Amino acid sequence: MRIQVDTAADAKGNPAPSSIRLDGRNVDVADVVDQWGGVGEHYFKVKDASDNIYILHFDEPQAAWELVVFMSKRGTTRPDLFAKHGPKRSLPAADGKL
Length: 98
Prior knowledge:
Elements: E1 2-9, E2 15-22, E3 25-28, E4 31-38, E5 41-47, E6 53-59, E7 64-72, E8 75-77, H1 79-85
């Protein structure tokens, strides 16, 4: 699912997600839990104020952000279900973790 992401410099001066726009609503990023990537692509595991987890992918050549995984306290929602049914509909996570 394509999304819009605002970034701000992290402690090392690198850009990191600061807010996410999904279906017309804004979600502030409370914490960047982890980040990884390779040439031309970056992944961020972020948490909002309600402790929901988002895995975001940034495709540098396309300058495009994508929501890869959304996990609420109740379970995991795939982006395609999130887009169709909104954030309140979720599927249980297999192990409760990412």
